[in-house]
């Protein structure tokens, strides 16, 4: 029996263990360890790997972001931030038809920005919003469906624990993953609001009404949300302004929410100890899954199963878009029976090598050359401005003096004497001076790009343009594919969490509202599932919605 066959047979064995209710982390570890023993013929390598894999996995600095975000979510709950978010949204929307449900969606989106977990968001916001929904006459099925769908926003709107895991698995920048999730997260929340608006018009008896709140009370409720805005702005803003890394930002967020919870009176010595305990327990569960996935994926790598699958898919000549759709449908089905983190850890090492081999054509060589030329022109003008001012911040005095002398020599060839005597020059002349080339070369490069062509080696060399080769292009396209695919996977996985009959979020909400038959929740949640599927189609058809905020050059 070949190693590839052994690796392929591990899938049904693993799924069998999972359906027998063996914890998924333990199931992956058992199959991975056993597979290594079987392939190598003895336990020596498997035992040795047990030591090295454990250290290698948990010595990753990036993983420390997980307990920090989990702790931040617990502190936010203790600080009353979930109640403040719901009250603020309810004060502005509650008087509208379906407004309290819309407020619940808004509060879920806001809490997701400081929580990072779908299940935690659903459970927390249900405790806050479910009594209010019932109080104002909202039907049980509609209320529970709204909160189940709103809970999915917790994992999509940054920060997100699952996005962190995905970024680590695919070796992507965590900050860029967070940035890419913003617009899809906002679209998701708006889509749910539209669904609520349609639903209450189709079924008028499913939603009651409440009195309009005075503006004084509205703005008072809005003011109470300042802790959420402060924490979110500090964490996310600090990451993108370069004040700290995502891991440091998570620590700052946990500290900030802890201080706010303490001032709000929700954090005592007992609740602090309980928060640490709950965070440690949740982190241990996640880390066990991470370790099990690392072992299982190491076994798969040894058997070459992911590489063989990727090679087979490429050989079939199937359209990359068809392969993507097949993978997303598979995720949708798996999402009905597995939690998002387990699914990501189990499947990404298999599907990501396949995606690496597919060409979606996000950036062409022509695009890269055009972007590099534009950057070169802007940099050249910035250098020229620095030469006129007498200093360039990024250059040492020695390098500036040398550059100034070289530029004056170039100007002299134009018969202008020196920079001080240069007067008004065209942009082409300025770029030519800075790059020690000719204005004709600069204009030729402009013409080539304007006509949709690629710059030749001579033009790239003359304008000092670097990083405009096949290697750089492949690196850019891999990053774009990884970010886009990650957001799509995250969305489809979350759709599975609310897809009847076994969506996990549905059971969490139902456990908190035993009076509502789950069949009523199933009926109502299908409207939200339809919104999610439409969003997936939109993001697949228009990748720019996800990627336009991500700088690629």
Write the layout of secondary structure elements.
Elements: H1 3-19, H2 24-40, H3 44-58, H4 65-78, H5 81-93, H6 99-112, H7 118-135, H8 140-151, H9 153-156, H10 161-169, H11 174-202, H12 215-223, H13 226-240, H14 246-263, H15 269-303, H16 305-316, H17 320-334, H18 340-356, H19 365-389, H20 397-413, H21 427-435, H22 439-450, H23 457-462, H24 470-497, H25 504-512, H26 518-541, H27 544-547
Helix pairs in contact: 1-2, 1-15, 2-3, 2-15, 3-15, 4-14, 4-15, 5-6, 5-12, 6-7, 6-8, 6-11, 7-8, 7-25, 8-25, 8-26, 10-18, 10-24, 11-24, 11-26, 13-14, 15-18, 16-18, 17-24, 18-24, 19-21, 19-22, 21-22, 24-26
Tell me the distance between the termini.
47 Å
H/I helix tally? 27
Overall form: globular
Per DSSP E runs of 2 or more residues, the count of β-strands stands at 0
Give average pLDDT, whole number: 81
Helix and strand sequence = HHHHHHHHHHHHHHHHHHHHHHHHHHH
Low-confidence segments:
none
Q: Please outline the major beta sheet.
A: none
Kindly provide the radius of gyration, computed on alpha-carbon positions and rounded to a whole number of angstroms: 28 Å
Portion in beta strands: under 5%
Structural class: mainly alpha
Helical content, roughly?
over 70%
């Amino acid at each position: 029996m070949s190693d590839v066959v052994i690796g392929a047979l591990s899938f049904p064995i693993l799924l069998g263990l999972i359906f027998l209710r063996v914890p998924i982390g333990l199931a992956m570890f058992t199959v991975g360890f056993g597979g290594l023993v079987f392939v190598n013929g003895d336990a020596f390598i498997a035992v040795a790997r047990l030591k090295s894999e454990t250290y290698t996995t948990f010595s990753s600095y990036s993983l420390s972001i997980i307990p920090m975000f989990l702790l931040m979510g617990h502190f936010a709950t203790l600080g009353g931030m979930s109640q403040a978010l719901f009250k603020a949204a309810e004060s502005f929307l509650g008087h509208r038809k379906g407004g309290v449900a819309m407020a619940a969606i808004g509060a879920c989106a806001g809490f997701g920005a400081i929580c990072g977990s779908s299940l935690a968001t659903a459970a927390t916001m249900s405790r806050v919003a479910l009594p209010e929904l019932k109080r104002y006459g909202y039907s049980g099925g509609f209320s529970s469906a709204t909160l189940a769908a709103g809970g999915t926003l917790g994992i999509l709107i940054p920060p997100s624990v699952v996005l962190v895991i995905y970024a680590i698995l695919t070796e992507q920048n965590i900050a860029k993953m967070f940035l890419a999730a913003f617009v899809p997260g906002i679209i998701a929340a708006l889509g749910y609001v539209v669904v609520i608006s349609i639903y209450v018009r189709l079924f008028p008896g499913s939603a009651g009404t409440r009195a309009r709140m005075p503006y004084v009370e509205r703005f008072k409720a809005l003011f109470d949300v300042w802790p959420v805005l402060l924490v979110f702005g500090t964490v996310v803003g600090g990451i993108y302004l370069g004040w700290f890394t995502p891991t440091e930002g998570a620590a700052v967020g946990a500290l900030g929410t802890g201080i706010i919870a303490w001032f709000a009176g929700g954090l005592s010595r007992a609740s602090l100890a309980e928060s640490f305990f709950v965070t440690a327990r949740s982190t241990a569960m996640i880390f066990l899954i991470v370790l099990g996935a690392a072992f299982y994926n190491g076994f798969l790598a040894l058997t070459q199963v992911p590489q063989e699958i990727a090679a087979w898919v490429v050989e079939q000549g199937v359209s990359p878009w068809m392969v993507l759709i097949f993978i997303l449908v598979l995720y949708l089905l798996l999402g009905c029976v597995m939690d998002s983190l387990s699914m990501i850890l189990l499947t990404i090492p298999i599907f990501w090598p396949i995606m690496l081999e597919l060409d979606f054509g996000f950036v062409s060589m022509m695009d890269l050359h055009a972007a590099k030329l534009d950057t070169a022109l802007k940099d050249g003008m910035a250098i020229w401005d620095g030469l006129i001012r007498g200093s360039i911040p990024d250059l040492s005095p020695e390098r500036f003096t040398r550059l100034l002398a070289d530029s004056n020599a170039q100007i002299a060839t134009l018969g202008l004497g020196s920079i001080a005597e240069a007067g008004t020059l065209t942009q082409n002349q300025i770029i030519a001076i800075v790059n020690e080339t000719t204005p004709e070369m600069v204009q030729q490069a402009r013409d080539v790009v304007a006509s949709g062509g690629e710059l030749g080696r001579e033009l790239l060399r003359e304008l000092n343009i670097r990083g405009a080769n096949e290697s750089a292009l492949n690196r850019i396209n891999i990053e774009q594919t990884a970010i886009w695919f990650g957001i799509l996977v995250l969305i489809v996985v979350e759709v599975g969490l609310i897809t009847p009959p076994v969506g996990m979020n549905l059971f969490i909400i139902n456990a908190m509202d035993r009076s509502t038959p789950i069949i009523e929740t199933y009926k109502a949640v299908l409207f939200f599932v339809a919104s999610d599927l439409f969003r997936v189609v939109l993001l697949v058809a228009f990748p720019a919605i996800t990627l336009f905020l991500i700088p690629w050059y």
